[in-house]
Amino acid sequence: MAKVFSMRGSQEGDIEIPRLKEEENSSFIEVYQENTPNTDKGHDERMKIQLCWDNVSYVIENKGDETQILKSVSGKANPGELLVLMGSSGAGKTTLLNILAGRLKSSSNTKISGQITANGTNIKDLDFGYYSAYVTQEDILLPNLTPRESLMFSSRLRMPGHYKDHVDRVNGIINDLRLAKCADNIVGSLTKKGLSGGERKRVCIGMELITDPIVLILDEPTSGLDSFTAEVVIDLLIEQARKGRTVMSTIHQPSTSMFDKFDKLILLAEGHLVYQGRASESTKYFAKIGYDCPKLMNPADYYMRLLHVVDRKHPTEEEHEKIENVVSAYNSIEQDEGDYDKSKLEPLQTKKLTSPTNFAEQFIILLERSWINARRDPLAGQLLFTEYIMIAVLLDLICNNLAKNYDSSTTRTQLLFMSTATVSFYSCQNAAMQFPNETPLFLKESKQRIYSTISYYMAKSIADIPMQLLPLLIYCLIIYWAIPFNDYDASKFFIFYFILVILQIGQIGVGYILGCMVKTDTVALAIVPIFLQPMLLWSGLFPHVNDYPESFSWVQYFSVRII
Ligand SMILES: Nc1ncnc2c1ncn2[C@@H]1O[C@H](COP(=O)(O)OP(=O)(O)OP(=O)(O)O)[C@@H](O)[C@H]1O
Fold it and tell me: Which atom of ligand 1 lies nearest, measured to the CA of 98?
């Protein structure tokens, strides 16, 4: 068994923190590879990646104050192993994962230093997203699709091949992740009952396995799950690792039996690395440096307590001393190259992360996805129908005796204003509510360069149009024939309807812009009037528009003019 760390100057001799035996590891990998269908997107099936990072630091500057979040952290993640990152809240686990995945870059107020290599190639020189996948802590899924549909759309958008290849790939993932029982149930959301937390997390992992990534990185995949479900997720990650993938994950509060399953463990404390090695050897190491985990205690709980600092800006003397001790103990150990046979690692080629589909294919797949998602969410459509019918009936009731003469012209103008205001508000609000819930998915997919923004926008708008046009047609049918706007003739009716359709499409565009600017549909609803109300002031209802201050005159060009 290879020795990895040895304590320099330790009186009782070297501490061995052994790694998995290479022979054990490769036999596992071979068995799994034999049983696994080749769902490859072009990666060599035997390609493996060792991810190494050397002296990685992350500094944030805020109003002249510098905070160092990661402090010269070095380590490696080997193929075929599950590496778990643990540490107290705020220790820097997510930050490290994001840097390793290439998701976090230096900016005007943040600085990343150090080197990260994959099989010896600096990841800056690679499109690392081609080789890796990242499962975020939040579940990013469309609530109205089933797991099978979500995986199918993801496969069709991200992988080349015929429909049958996608079906086979998705079936393989459903089997691997034991999703067969819930594969055809709706995913659901916070407000709509659907899959359980564990099932949803497995679907999210499946969405990333679609591209058969060589490196799989996960941020807290077990958060919010009960210990049994969390263990199922860990078992799946170990299976994925045994297929030869390099799997890294942060885990909060693992149970003892989960902890025993981790291959490798990295412990972070206040941005410092305080342990790296086999999880099963960690208690021995900490006992050696003076922190003996009680026999019946979960080692994970023990480390969390040991490394916890209540107020990171003002640690107590005891906390400070404790962290200093573990950090200096770790820094005093000699690090060895590890036991992974590097001769198996091929240098990586610079491959570009590109979409396998062209614009038309993207548009068709996205249109289908948006249409299913919109069709299964009847609430928005029902709300729009109810709003339009209610206002049309009320207008009819109060104006049913209106004559078509000069005296009624002001009232008829006001009714036109009412119609434009109604269409503007309802269309804009409805459209604004569509985006916030989908923004995380869109941002994730566009970062992965799965499709172009224009194909997404066109598919989404076209899928939403029938839901908007139909209630408007009913509104027009109710009011046009009851109120004497013009001659009662079909062509005039269609002109009336057509003008309101154009207005509606414009307001849907405004709604999309507003929806993209905010994070929740509640905020989207709240900001719509802030933008629309000033526009209505210049709609012509108030005849003295030219008396308005000159500095506001530009608003008229964004307003709906009815006269
Ligand atoms: N952009 C940023 N601006 C300011 N502080 C930041 C930023 N990014 C991270 N931090 C801080 O860095 C520290 C580490 O954050 P990180 O999310 O990596 O912690 P963590 O170990 O994953 O914690 P948790 O387990 O609670 O998710 C935290 O104190 C966080 O507030």
Answer: 18
